[in-house]
């Protein structure tokens, strides 16, 4: 009986997290986004905004590129378009990012 209750609670937690991510994607108020992210963080779900990190297609989704003349920036994440989320280290959603690319010199 106790195992069944635990299983049910975990399933309900996953459903609530999915609903919060859905609401986050549609929230127009920065305050609402901030509150939803804070609430998710309280239960172990954290937003991922990898700005400035090296782009890794295994953990990031490229949404576009930003041209740069600085070779040191090529391949770095310029900004996060849509934050990703992890639940205690397990990826729920990859962040969608803009990646610096060498400016076309043609």
From TrEMBL:
BP GO annotations: protein folding
Name of the featured protein: Molecular chaperone GrpE (Heat shock protein)
This protein's record includes keyword Chaperone: yes
One Pfam family from the record: GrpE
Keywords: Chaperone, Stress response
Top-level division of the source organism's lineage: Bacteria
Keyword Chloroplast: no
Molecular function as annotated in GO: adenyl-nucleotide exchange factor activity; protein homodimerization activity; protein-folding chaperone binding
UniProt cross-references to SUPFAM superfamilies, sorted A to Z: Head domain of nucleotide exchange factor GrpE
